[in-house]
Write a structure and sequence with these properties.
The chain has 8 helices and 7 strands. It has 202 residues and is an alpha+beta fold. The protein has a single domain, classed as Nuclear Transport Factor 2, Chain: A (Roll). Strands 1, 2, 3, 4, 5, 6 and 7 form a 7-stranded antiparallel beta sheet that branches. It is globular. 37% of the residues are buried.
Length: 202
C-alpha cells in the first residue's frame, strides 16, 4: 500500500484504539500448530511461543519481521473476510489471495512503524484457559517498557492439530472488530470496495 493510502486508513483510528492495537503488537489472528491441542495447557504453551516470536519481531523492528510472524501464524483469510463485513460477498475470488496478503502487510507496516512507542517487555499468562463455545480464551498481562500493564485476552480456535488466534481483546476492545470498523469506514468514505482492495494490494 502506498504511504498516502496507508495514512488515510490509519488516520481513522483514535489514540485509544491505537493503544489497544499497538499493545497487542499485531496479535490479530496469529496462530501456529501444537501437537497437544487437546491439553488445555497446550494453549498457554502455544501463546508463550507466539509472544516470543512477536518479541523477536519487535527487536528486529523491520516490517518484514512482523509480516513473517503474521503470515506464518495468522488466519488471514478469516480475519480479512470478517473485516469486510457486509462487503465480503462482493470480493471476487480472483482477488482474495492478494487481499489477504495486503491485510497482513498493512498490519505489519503499521505495527513496525509504531511499536517503538509501545514496546512490550513482558507477558504473563494465567495457567487455566477458559472455554467459550468452540473457542479457547487465554488471559495474559502485557507489560510495556513504560511500566504500563494491559490485560489481554487471546481467543484461540482449533486448526488442524493445533491453534490459531481468531481475536484479541485489549482494554475491552476486540481488535478484529476495530479492524472491521476501520475497513468499512474506508470503503464508505471512498464509495467502493475496490478502493480498499486497491489500497491494500498496490
Amino acid at each position: 500500500m502506498c504511504r498516502k493510502n496507508e495514512a488515510l486508513i490509519a488516520a481513522q483510528l483514535s489514540r485509544r484504539h491505537f493503544v489497544a492495537i499497538a499493545t497487542a503488537a499485531a496479535a490479530i489472528g496469529m496462530g501456529a500448530t501444537d501437537a497437544a491441542a487437546s491439553n488445555s495447557n497446550a494453549a498457554v504453551r502455544f501463546m508463550k511461543r507466539v509472544v516470543a516470536d512477536l518479541m523477536a519481531a519487535q527487536r528486529d523492528g523491520r516490517v518484514v519481521a512482523y509480516y513473517r510472524v503474521i503470515s506464518r501464524r495468522a488466519d488471514l483469510p478469516a480475519i480479512a473476510l470478517y473485516s469486510l463485513g457486509r462487503y465480503r460477498s462482493k470480493l471476487p475470488h480472483s482477488k482474495r489471495r492478494a487481499f489477504y496478503h495486503g491485510v497482513g502487510a498493512f498490519m505489519a507496516r503499521y505495527f513496525a512503524g509504531q511499536s517503538k512507542d509501545y514496546r512490550v517487555v513482558k507477558a504473563d499468562f494465567t495457567d487455566s484457559p477458559r472455554r467459550d463455545g468452540d473457542t479457547t480464551l487465554v488471559d495474559s498481562t502485557l507489560t510495556l517498557a513504560s511500566g504500563s500493564t494491559y490485560h489481554v485476552v487471546w481467543r484461540l480456535v482449533h486448526h488442524q492439530s493445533g491453534f490459531r488466534i481468531s481475536d484479541v481483546r485489549v482494554l475491552g476492545f476486540s481488535l478484529v472488530y476495530l479492524q472491521k470498523r476501520l475497513f468499512q469506514s474506508y470503503i464508505w468514505e471512498k464509495g467502493s470496495l475496490e478502493a480498499l482492495v486497491s489500497a491494500l494490494t498496490r
